[in-house]
Amino acid sequence: MTLISKILTLLALVIVMTGCAQFVTPPDETADSSSVTTPAITPEEQPPAPAVQPDVADTSASDDTTDDTSVESVEQQPEPADIASETPAEPEPDMTTREPAGIDVPVAPADGQEDAMPVAETGPVIVQSDVQERQVNALCNEIGNKLGSVSVADCLAQPLMVSGGYTVQGRPMVVRDFDADTTAEEGTRVLILGGIHGDEYSSISIMFKWMEILEQSSNRDFQWRFAPTVNPDGLLDGQAVRQNANGVDLNRNFPSEDWLDLAEDYWNNSTSRNPRRYPGTHPASEPEVQWIVEQIESYKPDVIVSDHAPYHLLDYDGPPEAPEQIGELHLHLLGGYPSSLGNYAGINLGIPVVTMELPSAGIMPSDEQIVSMWVDLLQWLYDHHES
């Protein structure tokens, strides 16, 4: 593909994302969302609504990118809530190496040709009960009223499915699957997770942006399972916090081989018993971690991608060769923290784990960077995991 073609491709994606931003980002986070109809839910079906939502994200965020003690010394000041329209201007990305073969660019249909845009099938149809549909609708109402870059309508537009797991407070663990054009036996499977830490807003919002991009692509060479928020209690139960509702740091609770030997000792001595890094009472003690472990066992991903913020780098665990750069994020290997996802899946199970640390927990990357990260991730998958 020529340089001009690559530039046109990236520009087309940016135009699509810009158009989506007008739909995605409400001008006023407090705007009335009553226009979205949600069926009533009995108390047995859905936990109570959270307390009054905060105006800003807690951007102390993940310590998976550096030493715990240094993290505490560099925690950022609170930033404005996750609003794409407030994102500072970014320099134009280098478009000479962005576009791997096989990436389909969505093109808006001409007037009077609404069906012109091809959309591939998005995976096997899983029948949801009425109760589960109401649970998804309720979750979307909470997410849309919490995040500035994801509206209630944006969330409801994604056919999220209850996948069998529930949080401490009874919120559903939801996913969206995208099938590959190849058969299930041949297609590389990618499990992509957002919001393991509830106060990392951007790590959740960017998942919805990438689902929009993938939905408009008619050429898919990989299978995807998106889990946009795997710690919804931490995000939605009043002031957003890193931990789940039991006060456990989910990214220190995975049943890695070193948990019994190192997890508690690391928490006591390296973090001075910081409650934000509490690993729990035993490996996989938390229902959210149990659910992620079950997803790894049942979905059998070839690659796991985990979104975090705000340390502006790229981490990697497991085989094969790590990506050197994804968008503006550059590789900075940190080693596996005891009982982290990278340690459990990447080191113990040998599944490549790509950890993207976005630049800010409370402000979304620019549209150009959202597209650039997606294209670079696809390029790495083509280079190392093409079916």
Fourth-tier CATH superfamily name: Zn peptidases
How helix-rich are the residues, as a percent range?
Answer: 25-40%
Assess the beta-strand content as a share of residues.
5-15%
Shape descriptor reads: globular
Structural class: alpha/beta
CATH architecture: 3-Layer(aba) Sandwich
Question: What's the β-strand tally?
Answer: 11
Query: Treating each run of at least 4 consecutive H or I residues as one helix, how many helices?
Result: 10
> Average pLDDT, to the nearest integer?
76
Please give the order of strands in the largest beta sheet.
3-4-6-5-7-11-8
Structural account:
With 387 residues, this protein is α/β, with parallel strands linked by helices. The protein has one domain (3-27, 57-385): Aminopeptidase. The chain has helices at 3-24, 68-73, 130-144, 152-157, 201-215, 232-236, 259-270, 287-299, 341-348, 367-385, and strands at residues 56-57, 79-80, 161-166, 172-178, 188-193, 222-227, 303-308, 313-317, 325-326, 329-330, 353-357. It has a seven-stranded mixed beta sheet, sandwiched between helices. Strands 1-2 form a two-stranded antiparallel sheet. Strands 9-10 form a two-stranded antiparallel sheet. The radius of gyration is 20 Å and the shape is globular. Mean pLDDT is 76; it is low at 1-8, 18-81 and 83-124.
